[in-house]
Amino acid sequence: MTSTTADTVPTGKATRTDGGTETTVTRTRRSRTIADEETSGKARYFLAKANHTDGTPALDREVTSEGEALVEALRLGVTYYEVQEFRVVPDFAGRKPQLNKETVNGK
Fold this sequence. Notes:
Layout lengths: L5 E11 L5 E9 L13 E5 L10 E5 L2 H11 L3 E4 L2 E6 L6 E6 L4
Antiparallel strand pairs: 1-2, 3-4, 3-5, 6-7
């Protein structure tokens, strides 16, 4: 579900070309894609248990997609959780050691 469409936004500035005609300059704005964010399609979706009020997340049934989680959560009147699993990968190559995260392929 990544979107790479570009929206054209007029800037309101006109420039004059060598021939004396004016052209309007437009900027293009790329929308943020899902790939720019942390989610990479490896998430799992769970519905919350109904009537669970002690503040601790309680997972109920797993659903296959975020769309199904949205519909079922609305239908049942509960919230849903998106769970991702990561592995820590140390990087000692540079001057400063770093800890990076790598997505684990669940299922």
